[in-house]
Specification:
Layout lengths: L6 H11 L4 H24 L9 H37 L12 H5 L2
Helix pairs in contact: 2-3
Length: about 110
């Protein structure tokens, strides 16, 4: 009797055989972030039920607002990660003097 191997087990096996790199992990994280951003945008697009009112409506609108804020923050973090990867590719490493805490405008205004 042969044991069947799941896809998940195969992925774990092959991942253990490959060398971990920051660039690969960053790309995987960026891909996951893109999916999460798309999911958040889809959630924000959903209409608010016109049947609800009062505190339930306020809570729904607050939830939408918080999702939009979280989505924006995730986009900014993904952008920073993308810049970090670009620097890694261009310089072969990440220079210590890089400041990834500023936003898009702050980085390019210097």
């Amino acid at each position: 009797m042969t044991k069947s191997i799941t896809v998940h087990e195969l992925k774990i096996y092959f991942m253990s055989k490959t060398k971990f790199t920051t660039a690969t992990a960053a790309r995987k994280l960026m891909d996951s972030m893109a999916i999460a951003i798309d999911n958040m945008i889809d959630e924000i697009k959903k209409p608010v039920d016109p049947e609800i009112n009062g505190s339930a409506r306020k809570a729904e609108l607050q939830s939408i607002k918080q999702t939009a804020i979280d989505c924006k923050e995730l986009i900014v973090e993904r952008q920073r990660l993308e810049q970090m990867l670009k620097d890694l590719k261009d310089n072969g490493g990440i220079s210590e003097d890089k400041d990834y805490s500023g936003g898009f405008a702050e980085r390019f205004s210097k």
